[in-house]
Amino acid sequence: TGEQGPAVVVMLPGVYTVLVTEPSGCQVEVIIDVDVAPLPVFDLGGDRQACDNEPVILSTGAVAGQVLWSTGDTGVSITVDAMGMYWARITDINGCSSTDSAFVSLLPAPQVSLQDTVVCAGTEVLLDVTWAGARYLWNTGDTMSSMRAGDTTRFYSVVVTDPWGCTDTAS
After folding, report:
1. Residue ranges with strand state E in the chain
2. What is the pLDDT of residues 83-123, one digit of tens each?
């Protein structure tokens, strides 16, 4: 390269010759073969959006090397349940490393409930699980946000699905 000094930075693979002059004036020629190792390749798959009542799994896939996650975990995958930026770094046997990241956003899932209720003969009770913008499916086949239950013994359950596809079940 024609450079002089105690260190030289090379960016390309190849055979380099270094001429070292000792304080006594003796010169030594050193030949160095530089090889450039490829970086580990992996992809976390981009940003994720999930319902806050479902875990999100991030994975590096099958890779050769040591994995370190922003959470401190060291396996090939992690399960997260909090919104935020997550990254993974893979370091191969050559000491080369690559990093990828993904932002996980969590959508609020509906939170509905039904209470066990005793109904007196000849009366009804209103079962209501209204959630803004949601769709409903009761075990009776009804699709309204509420329904009236009479004085017969019966089990009721409903699946509530919000506009983003997040669900909750009440029974």
Report:
1. 14-21, 27-34, 48-51, 56-59, 66-69, 77-80, 84-91, 97-107, 125-128, 135-138, 146-149, 158-161, 167-170
2. 999 999 999 999 999 999 999 999 999 999 988 888 888 88
